[in-house]
Specification:
The complex is a heterotetramer.
Chain A: E1 4-15, E2 18-29, E3 33-37, H1 44-51, E4 59-64, E5 67-69, H2 74-79, E6 82-85, H3 97-102, E7 108-109, E8 112-113, H4 115-128, H5 144-157, E9 162-166, H6 174-189, E10 193-197, H7 201-207, E11 210-215, E12 218-224, H8 230-238, E13 256-266, E14 272-282, E15 286-290, H9 297-304, E16 310-317, E17 320-321, H10 327-332, E18 335-338, H11 342-346, H12 353-357, E19 368-369, E20 372-373, H13 375-388, H14 405-418, E21 423-427, H15 435-450, E22 454-458, H16 462-468, E23 471-476, E24 479-484, H17 491-498
Parallel strand pairs in A: 3-10, 3-11, 6-9, 9-10, 15-22, 15-23, 18-21, 21-22
Antiparallel strand pairs in A: 1-2, 1-4, 4-5, 7-8, 11-12, 13-14, 13-16, 16-17, 19-20, 23-24
Chain B: E1 19-22, H1 33-47, E2 56-59, H2 66-76, E3 81-84, H3 90-99, E4 104-108, E5 117-122, H4 124-138, E6 143-148, H5 153-169, E7 174-179, H6 186-198, E8 203-207, H7 211-225, E9 232-237, H8 241-244, E10 245-246, E11 249-250, E12 252-258, H9 260-272, E13 281-284, E14 291-293, H10 303-318, H11 327-336
Helix pairs in contact in B: 1-9, 4-5, 4-10, 5-11, 6-7
Chain C: H1 2-31, H2 39-61, H3 65-80, H4 82-90, H5 95-118, E1 132-133, H6 144-148, E2 152-153, H7 154-172, H8 174-184, H9 186-191, H10 196-223, H11 234-244, H12 249-269, H13 280-299
Antiparallel strand pairs in C: 1-2
Helix pairs in contact in C: 1-7, 1-10, 1-11, 1-12, 2-3, 2-5, 2-10, 2-11, 3-10, 4-5, 4-10, 7-8, 7-12, 8-10, 11-12, 12-13
Classes of the chains: A alpha/beta, B alpha/beta, C mainly alpha, D mainly alpha.
Chain lengths: 510, 337, 317, 347
């Protein structure tokens, strides 16, 4: 008999009209990092929510340390030493780090929360595991990476022995991922067990001991990571071969499409985030912006697309000055934008997929005559795009909210590409998506380039930047500090550049 | 009418007289004219051996939209005489009266010029005049107050009469006049009263419905802290002596009585006797006891006040003086002093 | 000038007291994520309960009557608030709709019961209202004493004291932290082991209790009786105070005091010679216009608790 | 299994039944006869053509205030200011109706337009303050209600008349009443219901068929995404409030040009606006649903007046209406109960 901390045996969980978990078994050994792998919508989060007591399974059995338990509430999970870091953070923006962590088990002094003690305890815990959080900072003021560490602290504060992390790396920069991996190792050393959900096979190979694969709600099996490789994992998960390195022809850059000169942009706190930045993008090339989150990428994109005011500089698109144009005029002059935050910017979640397909074009003559919308035309277009971009949805009338992240992203990409823009801006287009979906999206971006479009790709994934871009611009502290050829660089070099060190080989220029 | 069961039986014996009233949004227990009207109708019913619901009844209105519906309901159940209580019903009485020329109507507090409508009005200015006399007699500070609900023509009659009465006694008396802008804002009433008493006013006459509650609340509170102090309220429409009671004291100096009950019973009787004053304006004033002044508070309403009031009352009845009922008339009256 | 303050301040305080209590209730409810449009109705129940109890038991209880009546009002509204809590929390009903229904229900119920108990549509005046008192000692302080401690309703002080207590509880105690968590991000609270439903129930019941006190105070200091129009819009003003005060107990208190101040100013204004010839209507609308100007001028954006108005369904996102 | 559209019908029906049942129980407890009470309620409306037409008159403004609130809700706003918008619309329609001489084809539309414009303006203020300064629309609307109440009273007394409580009747050319209908029913049944039904269509078309509606809904659901898509968020908030206020203003015109033909001073709010909140939500914020819920409201309110003939205090009906709303709002639990019943049957 193996010594398992967690055993989930033959779990079945149904949602109206769908079996999210069908007879899945997951066994986690003490002190291991156990990967949970599956496509978008395979049922990973559901399975973990069952373990954490948020969902009740229809069938199956859960054992903790060999004892059968019934977990019908997160409280019970906490008591059993199970902690979970959710895919979407469970943090209260307006609270401080310490408040978030002690919430529910607050230290008291009389009637009052003993905030001093709380801060001290949190700080101690943070130092012990090398988490480096500032206990008194407000959540809304700290980086995503730090927020994640707060989530981890929350589980530790409650004495978790088993920590579930649902796609922790999807939102992190490479730097932060490295730090996270160190943290995970520390945790294991302290005797904790970890369940890690991720779509990044490299990470599994790097830190995990074993990996359980699920596909379409069914358990495919568990493998020793040391005995497998990324290709095998991918095919296990998808059920077919996956090509990792995207094959593409060499770029044939033509005329300049986008030209940015001396652009300066402030964030909402009036701090300069983009500082006198210059950048050109030409037709038929993909320019990748590499950089650690928070170096002005978001502000740069928002400024180009007109979502944010520019404090200085000039933006030209096909020789037309678009610097001070409103959003719609910029969109119309030939800019497509796949936004970083698809829920906030990309979609109206309560609109149907069909309605979302025309979010940028609903007012055009094709769809609106005399102010009246032609839903026939709108839905025809929607159906066509759904088909072309393989958006998996019950129908074009389904609310966008009900689609999985990958399919939501496909719908956005379809919408933006279909407008035939000269410049396509893709911000983190594959965040949180499974390898199948990533492959699909990369293909589309390259296809655009081949059709002579200019593509601006912003991503924190170095893999993605290296594979897809024709030219890499490294952004640091609001400036492009280097431009490199992906074929002549590697992750180490990029990593250094992103940390701000100057390129020695040549002067940085465009 | 809210006894038990028994819907109004249609018809009954053909020659039996049937009368009813439609309240405005106040309802029959508004401690004001609706209540008074209902008391009058009940009195009339009892005097004539009629049964409630069959012989006399009322319909309650919850909003202005209900008037027409209620009036028509009564018409359709063959009511001989229908009262509309309050000027708010004037418009609708007019309309319905036009459509049902065989039915008799009466409107209280307004004039509707139709053959089958009797208009009942009161000379509130006369009673208010006397209230003013009493206030001026009672006031030691030389400052008295008036709190009105809304600044309407009707309430102006109260104000003008009151001011005239007070000035008749003491030419230099200061009258602080304020309107709350609502008949249902006791908080505002209390604010105004508080402000008036603070500034030295010692008698307040209110004509402000529920807003007047706040005036009483303030007077009673001051009285409670300072039982010897002069904080008087003059009530309106009915005897508001009860409302003024606080322990062994009572802040209600007197009340301007408006005998809607008398008027309603009177018109009903006339109608039953075949003498319905259709098309006429029937005015009730001091001389026919339609308007009066309460003398319940024996302690406060002293003999000399009583004497003075009675003296002016006689003058008003005899027509020696005419109480003003508008700003213009008041101005004229004051100039004549 | 000082004269004006002598009357403005006590007036502001008595006018504001019912609004403060009720608005504090609103703050608690909305901080926990339940919009409470039903404050008006809860005040109605408070006024109804206080007046009815006062009338029925004044003989037996004497000068204690108003205070016990206030407790009764508190309990009655707290119980009544369950009619908001159960649909809005457990049955996932739209909170705005439920609140509107509560307002209708309370008024219908109050008047119906008055008719059953007293056989008429509005009650007599209560014989044991709450009276103002001087605060011994403090009243003798020059200037200040006259302004703040002379002839004051103790309920006004209680209201202000409650505001500080409410603030303390909300921002300094575990319970307050939990209420706020539940109103901002119920799922996060849930995963932290906080009972979302229970917390919301407690917050709504607190709001009922406080609105009940508000209604009771209104009835026993201002209207002195109960009728269909006793509470006419105070609950809505309290909602305005909640938003004006940015969902902070002290802010709500400040807003309520501001309303009281604006109202007394408009009353005082009409006796200021300068304003004597200004048409009455301007003074009548002044408090409301002033509020709008204050909001537009320097209060600006107020952001509601994030989950306010959203029923929490366990396990959904 | 029930489909969700089926639920949309079943839940209100069950709620009405439950509400009436609760009312009956209360009547029994307090010693009234519920059968007689409800009979009187029914007769109060269906006794004669007159009362039925009065009921229609009552329903008409409810439809419009219901639309006003529903429209705002659908676009992410809470227009608690319909009350004030009704008042200003009312007085504006009467003003045009009394002050101008023109043939019907011009006069009536002009009066309606004036009402719509006044209501729209009254809603514009909270709209623009929200759009420009982020001031919460609820609080400004509440204040605007009081301003409207005092202002319209003042206008009637001191501007439109010489210190009178009500204006003259609007001229026949501006009136919604119609001799034919009056002759037919003897009531003031007026053509306003046609206006109301037309506005139902207008709202439906705007929301479901137009570019504008698409934008308004998008902004209501997600301001960030709307901004990303190049929509002007602030402008849409204002437009939304304005359209909502326009509906409410027309509700005022129904009273001013139809049911009353005058404007009169008000001591308190008419409650048309506040009841409109309930009407809208009972109707699922759907324009056609609003017709049904407004009808229920009108029916109960008119019928209730007759309940005193059965000796039942008509507050009972207020209680019943409130309970119906509570039940509809708690649709989730009814749905759940129904599904349990179904399951039980199958076993
Ligand atoms: N609350 C819910 N209601 C209905 N269906 C749900 C719910 N949550 C999940 N599902 C469905 O269950 C299936 C599994 O979802 P789950 O979130 O577990 O996927 P996942 O493997 O975590 O995907 P991803 O990689 O995108 O995070 C999906 O098809 C989803 O549509
Ligand atoms: N309320 C809901 N009703 C139906 N399905 C839902 C609901 N909420 C979530 N889901 C389903 O749960 C699945 C997972 O949701 P989740 O939010 O984890 O998406 P995701 O694919 O991980 O995307 P992302 O990581 O970008 O948020 C989705 O496939 C979605 O279909
Ligand atoms: Mg997931
Ligand atoms: Mg995901």
């Amino acid at each position: 008999m193996e010594n398992y901390v967690i055993e989930m045996l033959n779990i079945r969980k149904e949602f109206p009209g769908i079996v999210a978990n069908d007879n899945i078994t997951l066994q986690v050994k003490k002190g291991e990092i156990h990967a949970l792998l599956g496509e978008n919508g395979a049922g990973k989060s559901t399975l973990m929510n069952v373990l954490f007591g948020l969902y009740q399974p229809e069938k199956g059995e859960i054992r903790v340390d060999g004892k059968q338990v019934e977990i019908n509430d997160p409280n019970v999970a906490n008591r059993l030493g199970i902690g979970m870091v959710h895919q979407h953070f469970m943090l209260i923006d307006t609270f401080t780090v310490a408040q978030n962590i002690v919430l529910g088990s607050e230290p008291k002094k009389g009637l009052k929360i003993d905030m001093k003690k709380a801060v001290r305890e949190v700080q101690e815990l943070s130092d012990r595991y090398g988490l480096q959080v500032d206990a008194t900072a407000k959540i809304s003021d700290i980086s995503v990476g730090m927020q994640q560490r707060v989530e981890i602290l929350k589980t530790l504060y409650r004495g978790a022995n088993v920590v579930i992390l649902d796609e922790p790396t999807a939102v992190l920069t490479p730097q932060e991922i490295k730090e996270l991996i160190v943290i995970l190792r520390t945790l294991v050393k302290e005797g904790k067990s970890i369940i890690l959900i991720t779509h990044k096979l490299k990470e599994i190979m790097e830190v995990c001991d074993r990996c359980t694969v699920i596909r379409k709600g069914q358990g495919i099996g568990t493998v020793e990571v040391s005995e497998t490789n990324p290709n095998d994992l991918a095919s296990l998960m998808v059920g077919r071969e996956i090509h990792f390195s995207t094959d593409k022809k060499a770029a044939e850059p033509k005329e300049t499409i986008l030209s940015i000169e001396g652009l300066t942009v402030q964030d909402s706190r009036h701090v300069d985030m983009v500082k006198s930045l210059d950048l050109d993008i030409r037709a038929g090339e993909i320019v990748g912006i590499a950089g650690v989150d928070g170096n002005g990428q978001t502000e740069l994109i928002e400024a180009i697309t007109g979502l944010r005011k520019k404090s200085a500089g000039k933006v030209t698109l096909k020789n037309q000055d678009i610097t001070n144009m409103p959003v719609r005029a910029i969109t119309e002059s030939g800019v497509g934008h796949i936004p970083q935050d698809r829920h906030k910017l990309g979609l109206v979640l309560d609109f149907s997929v069909g309605e979302n397909i025309v979010l940028q074009t609903y007012y055009k003559k094709t769809y609106a005559k005399g102010g009246i919308l032609s839903f026939k035309r709108i839905f025809d277009k929607a159906k066509a795009l759904i088909k072309e971009y393989d958006v998996r949805t019950p129908s074009h009338l389904t609310k966008a909210r009900a689609l999985s992240g990958g399919n939501q992203q496909k719908a956005i990409i379809g919408r933006e590409i279909d407008r035939n823009p000269d410049l396509l801006i893709a911000a983190q287009p594959t965040r949180g998506l499974d390898v199948g979906a990533i492959e699909f999206i990369h293909k589309r971006l390259i296809e655009q380039r081949d059709q002579g479009k200019a593509v601006l790709l912003v991503s924190f994934e170095l893999d993605e930047i290296l594979n897809v871009s024709d030219r890499i611009a490294v952004m640091f502290d609001g400036k492009i500090i280097a431009t490199v050829d992906p074929k002549e660089t590697n992750e180490q070099e990029l990593g250094l550049l992103m940390a701000g060190s100057k390129l020695e080989k040549e002067g940085a220029h465009n | 009418a809210c006894g038990s069961g028994g819907s109004s039986e249609q018809g009954g014996s053909d020659n039996s007289f049937k009368t009813a009233m439609v309240t405005d949004t106040g309802g029959i227990d508004d401690k004001s004219f609706n209540q008074s009207a209902w008391e009058g109708l009940t009195q009339f019913g009892e005097d004539n051996g009629l049964k409630e619901d069959a012989g006399y009844s009322y319909l309650q209105s919850n909003s202005a939209s209900d008037y027409v519906t209620n009036l028509n309901r009564l018409v359709q159940s063959n009511t001989d005489l229908i009262f509309g209580i309050g000027f708010k019903l004037a418009e609708d009485i007019g309309t319905v009266a036009d459509q049902h020329k065989d039915t008799h109507f009466a409107i209280v507090d307004s004039v509707v010029d139709k053959e089958n409508v009797a208009s009942i009005v009161f000379e509130e200015q006369q009673g208010s005049f006397l209230a003013g006399v009493a206030a001026a007699m009672k006031s030691e500070s030389g400052k008295i107050g008036f709190v009105g609900g809304e600044e309407s023509e009707l309430i102006k009659k109260f104000e003008a009469g009151y001011v005239a009465g007070a000035k008749s006694v003491n030419k230099d008396i200061e009258v602080d006049v304020q309107y709350a802008g609502s008949f249902g804002a006791p908080d505002k009433g209390k604010l105004i009263a508080s402000n008036m008493y603070n500034s030295g006013v010692d008698v307040i006459y209110h004509s402000a419905g529920g807003t007047g509650n706040g005036v009483f609340a303030q007077a009673k509170d001051l009285k409670n802290n300072d039982p010897e102090g002069n904080y008087w309220v003059i009530g309106v429409d009915r005897d508001q002596y009860e409302e003024g009671q606080i322990g062994d004291n009572n802040v209600t100096l007197t009340s301007m009585l408006k005998a809607v009950d008398v008027a309603v019973a009177d018109i009903a009787q006339q109608s039953k006797d075949g003498k319905f004053p259709g098309g006429e304006i029937v005015s009730y004033g001091l001389k026919d006891d339609g308007i009066n002044i309460a003398e319940t508070n024996k302690d406060a309403y002293s003999e000399d006040i009583k004497a003075a009031v009675n003296e002016w009352k006689q003058k008003l009845i005899d027509g020696d003086v005419t109480a003003p009922s508008t700003d213009a008339e008041l101005q004229e009256y004051q100039d004549s002093l | 000038m000082l004269d004006i303050l002598y009357s403005l301040i006590p007036q502001t305080l008595f006018f504001a007291a019912p609004l403060i209590f009720t608005a504090l209730g609103g703050v608690y409810s909305e901080r926990s994520g339940v919009i409470n449009i039903g404050l008006e109705g809860l005040m109605v129940i408070g006024a109804f309960a206080a007046v009815t109890f006062n009338l029925l038991y004044a003989n037996a209880l004497g000068t204690m009557t108003p205070w016990i009546s206030l407790l009764v009002a508190m309990v009655a509204s707290a119980v009544f608030s369950l009619l908001l809590a159960i649909p809005a929390i457990t049955f996932r009903a739209d909170q705005t709709v439920t609140g509107v229904a509560i307002n209708m229900l309370a008024l219908g119920f109050g008047v119906f019961m008055i008719k059953q108990i007293f056989n008429k549509g509005q009650t007599e005046f209560i014989s044991e209202p709450i009276y103002t008192k001087d605060v011994p000692g403090l009243v003798d302080i020059p200037v200040i004493g006259e302004m703040f401690f002379n002839n004051m309703y103790i309920t006004s002080y209680i209201a202000i004291a409650f505001s500080f207590v409410a603030w303390y509880v909300l921002f300094k105690t575990p319970f307050g932290l939990r209420i706020r968590a539940v109103g901002e991000h119920p799922m996060a609270a849930d995963t932290n082991g906080i009972k979302v439903y229970t917390t919301r129930y407690i917050a709504v019941i607190i709001s009922g209790a406080l609105a009940g006190i508000g209604g009771g105070v209104f009835a026993m200091t201002i209207s002195l009786n109960f009728s269909v129009s006793t509470i006419a819009g105070q609950g809505f003003m309290a909602i305005a105070a909640v938003i004006f005060g940015k969902w902070n107990p002290l802010g709500a208190m400040g807003a309520a005091l501001f309303f009281g101040f604006a109202q007394s100013l408009s009353v005082v204004g009409s006796s200021i010679p300068l304003l004597e010839n200004v048409p009455q209507v301007y003074l009548l609308i002044a408090p409301y216009v002033l509020t709008i100007l204050a909001l537009a001028g320097f209060i600006g954006r107020s952001v509601a608790p994030k989950a306010s108005g959203v029923p929490y369904v366990k396990g959904s996102r | 299994m029930f489909s969700s559209t089926k639920f949309n019908f079943i839940i209100p029906i069950i709620s009405v039944v439950l509400g009436l049942a609760a009312g009956a129980i209360i009547m029994l407890i307090f010693g009234y006869n519920p059968i007689l009470g409800y009979q009187a309620l029914w007769n109060g409306v269906f006794d004669s053509g007159f009362f039925m037409s009065e009921t229609v008159n009552r329903i008409t403004p409810y439809i419009l205030t219901g639309l006003a609130i529903a429209f705002a809700f659908r676009t992410g706003l809470f227009n608690i200011g319909a009350e004030g918008q009704v008042l200003v619309g009312w007085i504006a329609s009467v003003w045009v109706g009394t002050a101008i001489d023109a043939p019907t084809v011009i006069h009536l539309p002009l009066a309606l337009l004036a009402a719509a414009a006044a209501g729209a303006f009254w809603a514009f203020i909270p709209g623009i303050l929200k759009a420009k300064l982020g001031v919460h629309e609820v609080i400004v609307s509440i204040m605007m209600n009081y301003v409207a109440l005092h202002l319209t009273n003042y206008l009637i007394r001191d501007v439109m008349t010489d210190n009178s409580e009500s204006t003259e009747q609007v001229k026949q050319t501006a009136s919604l009443t119609n001799d034919f209908l009056i002759g037919l029913t003897g009531s003031r049944l007026h053509l306003g219901f046609i206006v109301a039904l037309f506005m139902v269509l207008v709202m439906w078309v705007i929301l479901e068929r137009t570019k504008l509606g698409y934008e308004l809904k998008a902004v209501g659901y997600n301001q960030h995404a709307s901004n990303y898509a190049g929509m002007k968020v602030g402008r849409n908030i204002v437009i939304s409030m304005v359209i909502s206020g326009l509906f409410a203003g027309l509700a005022g015109a129904m009273q001013g040009l139809g049911s009353f033909g005058t404007a009169f001073t008000n001591t308190a709010f008419s409650n048309l606006g506040f009841d409109g909140i309930a009407v809208a939500l009972l109707g699922g914020n759907n324009p056609f649903g609003v017709i049904l819920s407004a009808s229920l409201f009108g029916f109960l309110k008119v019928g209730a007046l007759n309940m005193s003939t059965a000796g039942v205090p008509n507050e009972i009906i207020e209680i019943v209406i409130a309970l119906i709303i509570l039940f509809v709002a708690s649709g989730f639990i009814i749905r759940w109960a129904l599904l349990q019943l179904k399951k039980g049957e199958r076993k």
